[in-house]
Amino acid sequence: MERHPSQSNPLVPRADRYAAGRAMRRVVSRHSHADWQATAGRADPIAILEAQGRRRIAELLPIRYGRMRASPLAFLRGAAAIMAADLATTPATGLVVQSCGDCHLLNFGSYATPEGLPVFDINDFDETLPAPFEWDLKRLSASLVLAGRGHGLAARACRRLAADAVLAYASEIGRLAGLTPLEAWSTRIDLLDAIDSIGDRQARRHARLSLEQQLQSAAVQYGLLDTTGTTPRLIEKPPLVMRLPGRETEVRKAFARYAGTLSPERRLLLERYRLEDVIFKVVGIGSVGTFCAIGLFSTADGEPLLLQIKEAQASVLEPFAGPSAYGNSGERVVVGQRVMQAASDLFLGWTHSTGRQDNAEDDAHDHAGEADAGGRHFYVRRLKDSRLAALGSAIEQHGLQDYAALCGQTLGRAHARSGEIVGLSAYIGRGRAFARAIADFGVSYADQTERDFALFGHAVSSGRLPTAPG
Predict the structure, then answer these.
(1) Which range has the worst mean pLDDT, 166-170, 315-319, 394-398?
(2) How far apart are CA 251 and CA 281, in angstroms?
(3) Which end of the chain has fewer beta carbons closer than 10 Å to its terminal beta carbon, N or C?
């Protein structure tokens, strides 16, 4: 995908970049983003899911489909590939950013920075890729409308959620466009400030209480750690957390390769831990069926470190936004996360498996970050603190309108790190016209998702797609 001319040289003066952004309105009007109508040749959404499933672990697909069956919003979460194909048929500005690629309201959340400070940010990057900035906004908009419907809100209130998110996005983009690049890059959203900005007193009180409880709670390693023996071990919790002995060697070798993608000082830190145990875990909705495991690392004194190794496949955006610049999809995820997040995981890195029986001779001729046919790409990070991450959901449950605006602001901050922010701000303007258009799209695409969800239900009931409790 070609970029707008103003993006080709970031050293173009602000005035010229602003003029280019304004001129883009004549090429792709802001109003045109409201349009959504399925094309005559639109692919069968169930066929898209089936094609995606052929690249997944077949035994886990029933869990994936079972989770998607919960609601239209749950279906949207697992249908990023369907929406990517649909977004490619909509008007595109060519104003490219590092896109999340799967930007729905539940892919935002809280986590602690390496310094231990709680922040609010995007927290899922499996589909990240450079793409038109409006694609993330349109997916977020549709998810907010569906969330509002799930909460029983009136149609006008559901549409307002989407509009509020876009207005907050526009405000953040406008604010950051006036800063120096260094100032804009360094901006982060403090979770405490985000909680204080919640308008609803009950929602604010609930979020503060939840945060205090999580920050004061002892580290229990998510209930996965058995320390009764001489060596710490991970605890199985079938059917979602279990051992797969036939896969353990592959994971151990992939972890060994991963160390080579870390910077020297972080590799030095990792060398103070030894891999003790490996266990496999089913995660998410869209990710179910991909290869995911947890590695228990420990010091000589039994101090634990849990790292998650997660398969990275090609982004669902690649058929429409162009191939990734990185041969290893794990590296694509890691780079995208480092670009978009204000503070990234100390242990973030990537690796691969060869798809054959690993041995020392194989390692001698492996190329760093590459996998043979049949191999897999992975990224590695610290296992998420699910208790802290759940605070985003707590805010969403008790103050959805404030949460919608917080997501919009957060997305604006993330896009500002890679996008031509002055041109973006000039194109969007104050945001009212653009917010109306994106909100209209969100309502229309939420309707489309509900129609697709009905087709999905029929595919399940007819036996075309197998399901199992998630």
Answers:
(1) 394-398
(2) 13
(3) N
**With 90 as the cut, is the pLDDT of residue 286 above it?**
no
CB 46 within 8 A of CB 464: yes
Residue 227 has pLDDT above 80, yes or no: no
Regarding beta strands 349-353 and 376-382, do their DSSP bridges make them parallel or antiparallel, or are they unpaired? antiparallel
Q: Any idea which residue has 């875990």 for tokens?
A: 281
The 3-state DSSP class for residue 135 equals: helix
Helices 80-87, 133-150: inter-axial angle, 10-degree rounding: 130
Nearest residue to 144 (alpha-carbon basis) of 359, 348, 435, 361: 435
Q: Give the Cα separation of 165 and 406 in Å (integer).
A: 7
User: Nearest 5°: phi and psi at 468?
Assistant: -150, 155
Task: Report the Cα–Cα distance between both ends of the chain, in Å, rounded.
Answer: 38
Place of tokens 């609010």: 120
- Contact assessment for residue 308 and residue 294, using Cβ atoms and an 8 Å cutoff: yes
Strand residue runs (E) in 123-171: 129-132
| Alpha carbons 166 and 407: distance in angstroms, whole number | 9
| pLDDT tens profile 75-115 | 999 999 999 999 999 999 989 999 999 999 999 988 878 77
pLDDT tens figures, 320-332:
999 999 999 999 9
Give the whole-angstrom CA distance, residue 88 versus residue 412: 21
Q: Give the whole-angstrom CA distance, residue 377 versus residue 353.
A: 7
